[in-house]
Amino acid sequence: MGGCCPPMDLMRSEPMQLVQLIIPIESAHLTVSYLGDLGLLQFKDLNADKSPFQRTYAAQIKKCAEMARKLRFFKEQMNKAGITPSIKSISRADTNVDDLEIKLGELEAELVEINANGEKLQRAYSELMESKIVLQKVGDFFHVAQSRATARQREIESESTGEDSIDTPLLRDQEMAADPSKQIKLGFLCGLVPREKSMAFERILFRATRGNVFLKQTEVEEPVVDPASREKVEKNVFLVFYSGERAKNKILKICDAFAANRYSFNEDLGKQSQVISEVQRSLTELKTTIDAGLVHRGNLLQTIGEQFEQWNQLVRKEKAIYHTLNMLSLDVTKKCLVSEGWCPVFATKQIQDALQRAAFDSNAQVGAIIQVLQTKEMPPTYFQTNKFTSAFQEIVDAYGVAKYQEANPGVYTIVTFPFLFAVMFGDWGHGICLLLATLVFLVREKKLSGQKLGDITEMIFGGRYVILMMALFSIYTGLIYNEFFSVPFELFGPSAYACRDLDCKDATTVGLIKVRDAYPFGVDPVWHGTRTELPFLNSLKMKMSILLGVAQMNLGIILSYFNAKFFKNGVNIWFQFIPQMIFLNSLFGYLSLLIIVKWATGSQADLYHVMIYMFLSPTEDLGENRLFPGQDKLQLVLLLLALVSVPWMLLPKPFLLKKQHEERHQGHSYTQLETTEESFQVEQSHDSHGHEEFQFSEVFVHQLIHTIEFVLGAVSNTASYLRLWALSLAHSELSSVFYEKVLMLAWGFNNLIILIVGIIVFIAATVGVLLVMETLSAFLHALRLHWVEFQNKFYEGDGYKFFPFSFVVIGDEDE
């Protein structure tokens, strides 16, 4: 940009160079590790034709992946146990990777064994708990049944001692005298069945045995831990009596199908208390054992948690190092590794220092060699940003990464983006609210930067400085519009106007007279609330939008000149920059001039009429629409210049590019020619595909499309800037509606409850609509004006980012 201005780090991307490193194998690992700490070298993959399994360090990567799996297993176990890994300052780990691999294997085996034993003990505990419940419930049933049978037996015996009556059964003697060995013996099974399956369980039993069973079910009051699923399940205790082995087999199969757990029950009721006490004792012993196991497991996980982050970082680094080493190629002697990569020119000394330190620390006999390679390959784009400029650079990069060393729109976006936002959001009350919300993030910046935030919160936190600038500019434009939640204030002095007489309560401009000097800054507060407020502000904001739009589009075209000058592309200066400046300013630059002259002179000229008849009838007399002498002749000259600039853009450039191509490939390659972007691209294609014929038709069609796009875009882009007027008007009117129709209406009722409700509704509407939705809307429209209307004048955005090998980036990534 010449010697008049100091160098701007963001204006052009850092000068890059392609370097070749020749590294001895014995120091390769440490060299890559130091380069990862430095984070200023982007390695190229020299083994792109090989699969991951064919590369040199595939076994080491597999080993690192296995260690990473073990660490993920530990993390899952710690999460289940509610243990958080201790976050300490992670220094370089002194642990050897091989020792760590052995240690992780031992810890995993120990933890797996503890988990398996714990599961077995927990299952046995759950089974004993179920057995205890069955013993209690079934014991109660048998006890009740025996009591009833005893009572019934006594009743029968008392009846048999009396004399036989006519009602005594005739066969009683035969029944009592029957052989006991011929009586049918009933078997029984008991256990627990899930309550949701109990009805189906009963039906299937009845159908399978054709009703030849007796089933008794009792609900368990509290859910029971199931031994198989280890989840709490509501269950019923069942007791089923059957006859015969066949029925028993059917019942066993049905129990298995319904996940009904069966438990043994001793028929000898006298031993029940002894069995229950034994079960209770076993439960106590198991509980003690389980608690001891959990304590041991917790201590083990706590020990792992203290070193987890250090181990995790070490494994991530090792994996990244071997991934990078796999991108290097072995030389013929297989004693050295050869790598190529991009680095900034300023980083050469730092890389050399890292190589020397690695050679010394690894006791290598030979140091690594670095040499700069000459290449025509397009280098990556690298901008050095800080926490303030990075968010603005991300806005530009979201559209497209800058081509290597082309002018960066991010420099101007820092000012123009928040300013155009503020033009649409102009209210210093809303700006203060936005500023206070941003200050919360700025005050807690250090704390929040180390936390994991939600998606939306993280996005807002990342753009906190963008929002800060938006808030400050909104306060500025709000002071210009003189709007504080749509209410005007006489901040910079009294109004320049006053009522003509005491009856002037309508506050119209007809009834107002100018009594003092003009209001010193911004819109005079007397305009608000008058009948002519809307026409006045409409005219002001619409003309202001056109002026801002034409100014920013001119800035874009001027930046295309600096691009052409930087790349020494004279063709683009003479046949792109100059005709574009002429065309845009012959039409819309002239319109901007008319707006300024009209404001300065107070003329009543109709600018719509002037611009329309400039094309329809260029020679017609302007009459009362004349703003200055010689305007008619100036319009004719500007119209002719605009017409001439179109073929000026379209025709010469393709022929000049063709001429340059022919001279380059007809034995005159030694001649010093101007290097153009198009010829640079042609050279690249020729280097890779041999000498191809210059496609004149393609170049001409491309230039035709570019010319048509610019001519039509000059009109549509200028009209697009009217969104500044439209959104500013919408914001102002919405704010006015909420103030007058909600807050002031509630105030007029002279009722405290209605006033409180009105204030709540006003705050909710202001925050929800004006501070959230309108902010997002103005942000997106400002984004569009930068991406489309501004950047398409000069910004190609077809580059690719510089992604250096860095451990800082690896630490932020999840596996």
UniProtKB/TrEMBL annotation:
Q: Where in the cell is it found?
A: Membrane
Q: Which GO terms describe its biological process?
A: vacuolar acidification
One GO molecular function term of this record is: ATPase binding
Chief subcellular location equals membrane
UniProt keyword annotations, A-Z: Hydrogen ion transport, Ion transport, Membrane, Transmembrane, Transmembrane helix, Transport
Q: Which residues cross the membrane?
A: 419-443, 464-481, 544-562, 582-601, 634-651, 752-773
Q: How does it sit in the membrane?
A: Multi-pass membrane protein
**Among the entry's GO cellular component annotations, what is one?**
vacuolar proton-transporting V-type ATPase, V0 domain
Which Pfam families does UniProt cross-reference here? Answer: V_ATPase_I
List the InterPro entries hit by this protein, alphabetically: V-ATPase_116kDa_su, V-type_ATPase_116kDa_su_euka
Q: What does this protein do?
A: Essential component of the vacuolar proton pump (V-ATPase), a multimeric enzyme that catalyzes the translocation of protons across the membranes. Required for assembly and activity of the V-ATPase.
Q: Which family does it belong to?
A: Belongs to the V-ATPase 116 kDa subunit family.
Q: What is this protein called?
A: V-type proton ATPase subunit a
